[in-house]
Design a protein that fits this description.
Layout lengths: L2 E4 L3 H12 L4 E5 L14 E2 L7 H8 L1 H22 L3 E2 L3 E4 L3 H16 L5 E3 L13 E4 L3 E3 L1 H14 L3 E4 L12 E3 L5 H4 L8 E10 L11 E3 L4 E5 L5 E5 L17 H15 L5 E11 L6 E6 L2 E5 L5 H16 L17
Parallel strand pairs: 1-2, 1-10, 2-9, 5-12, 10-17
Antiparallel strand pairs: 3-8, 4-8, 5-7, 6-7, 11-14, 11-15, 12-13, 13-14, 16-17
Amino acid sequence: MDVNVIGAGVTGCACALALAERGLRVRVHEARHVAAGASGRNGGFALRGGAMPYDRAREQLGPDRARALWRLTESTLERMESLAGDAFARVGSLRLAVDETERKALTSELDALRSDGFDGAWAERLPKGLGERYCGALLHPRDGSLHPARWVRQLAEHAARAGAEIVEGRRAVPDALDTPVVVAVDGGLAALLPELAPHVVPVRGQMLATEPLRERLFTRPHYARWGYDYWQQLSDGRLVVGGKRDVDLVGEQTEVDETTAAVQSAIESLVVDLVGRLPAVTHRWSGVWGQTPDLLPLVGEVRDGVWVAGGYSGHGNVLGLACGELVARAVAGDQAPELDLFDPGRFG
């Protein structure tokens, strides 16, 4: 075997596909099953950019590096569209302002986006029922809606057809595998690579889904209240709602992949605010991601022959695809310039 990959989420499958397309023999080791982790258990938001707003990224990274990051994710959305089939829809996303402070923050981000040539628009007219709760929104017109599990399974099928071997139900650790090894587990990075523990924290996000609603209320993904509330309505009418992590910020810093009564109750209250009632809840779930101090992923070689790609800080649907392909290129000897943004040694 030329390369071993640990984790069959979006990053691991993207990495395996890119390596197999280069003629390398690849084996993916997955402790549970394809899409079992946060890659297949999230809100289905396919967003450009990073976890930080664009104006903050310009301050943190400098204008050139911020532009490079946003362009990388925009091109990755194009790549996703070509691979995902009916698991992806280009419907845009809305970031809603809950108060005047958030409204000013969103208008500042919009100004920065426009000044650097990126599209965006201000939405004063909000979907039915939201105008009383929110005071405007930033529209990202080229973002998308994703069926996460279906997308990751399709990506795994692409990788398998290209020649990658995917082994489910097998827990693997880097030291037990021949190198090179790519560790692509996001929320579990610290457990497999202890040297990263000071730089990546596991964080849990919780979701629920309702029965189909009779009325089409929302046509695209929505973020609100600084990203602590998020929802979208699926094509079959079901409402998928998540967030409320700030109910227990300390408790949600955990690798335990299960729902809790306190956060689920708060999400139910958000559903009532959005719909006016609580429809029957059909599904509840959680997913664990890895969060870094600067909200940028960790992608690169951490030991001789051991590579990492993860730490997406809750924005792994698009960044996971991008970084899986970037780390594959690096393992194959093609060091892309974008990797400088994600150097895992940047914290010292």
